[in-house]
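The instructor's notes for this session suggest beginning with a concrete chain rather than abstract definitions. Hand out the sequence below and ask the class to guess, before any prediction is shown, which regions might be ordered.
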Amino acid sequence: MHRSSALFAVSLVVGVLLVGMGAAGQLRAQSVDDLQQQIVQSTSQIDDLKKEIAQLQTQLNATGKQKQTLQSAITGLDLNIKKITKTIALTNAQIAQKDGQISRLSGSIATTSIKIGTAQTEVGNTLAQLDIHDQEPVSLLLLSEPSLSSFFDEAASLESLRVDLQSTVHQLSDLKQTLQDSKTVAQQKRQDLANLQASLAQQKQSLAIARQTQSDLLIQTKNTEATYQKILAQKKAQEAKFEQDLLSYESQLNLKVSKGSLPPSGSVVLAWPVDDPYITQYFGNTPFATANPQVYNGKGHNAIDLRASPGTPIKAARGGVVLGTGNTDLTCPGASYGKWIFIKHDDGLSTIYAHLSVIGVSKGDSVTVGQVIGYSDTTGYATGPHLHFGVYASTGSEVASFASKGCPGKTYTMPVADISAYLNPLSYLPPL
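After discussion, reveal the predicted structure:
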């Protein structure tokens, strides 16, 4: 090939590459514009759903503060079903939005990959041609040019093209890095989507349980307040028998609490297990505990109760390992914790979460702080929907089995502790 023809070919290739890269940039810009348009279109729907959910939560909070009657229980369940339904709709909208983002990212990645492959091939071919010309003897090159000046002009042009090609290669390398970043973002979005789908499945399960709870309540009470209050009284009697069983068993334990292994009181080593925490009963000799000595045996409330309408996500207060999960209603319905989760942490503390509708973890699982581990309800002894949240000294507590006198022939399996191992959760939680 003649020298000038080679230079022309190289110039053409550089031009094509630069134009192609400009087109790729334009393609990415168009993808971003499309994505932004999709986000704008879906944002209104998502915002509306969030407002409706907030309004329902306000109504649920107001209902939770009312006296627990048949009507308030049914109202709370109805409101919660509506809230969960809206939450599911919100999650579906967010999933659809992420699907669009992932689809567009995947398309952009595929198109860019093709352009990069083509460009790199053209650069390689061109550099090979230039290398061939570089190896030609100078004497032949001088004979092929009309003058010495034109030879040096060609050489300068060749060097300029070399610089342009090198710049193009660097730009292609940057484009490849952008591609890798896009893939990473796409993978993360896919993981977010999987998490959303898992959350959606649990919320649907919680919704089904809430509906069943409402149906059972209506069947049991036949929609009469007197029958409902009778059911509450029966629950209290069952709980009192359970407390006697538990106290009898725990008094025989020889679990030693190592005070030096506990975080200092006032240290914020735990996070609230629910959003927007509101305490409905405190730790210790609270008015309710004092008014119900047949339930608490005079030793006070061994945890705190947090407002949590059925279906409220319950979160791990700290990272740790699940020591056990269970359902005391299978032993003696309405007597104790209902569905519970017990987690041992790395700082000498363990925590319990009770009265759940859905248990989202299993024994041996590792959890992180803030991870959703279940959903609230009114299983076990609960005169209204709430979360029973207790903190134990790990050295003085364990998951154990003991016989139930209230339900003869049955055996409880649940967390137990020496009385000195029950700790006030507020000693380790952020101030409200």
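Then share the key points. The radius of gyration is 34 Å. Residues 147 and 225 are 111 Å apart (CA to CA).
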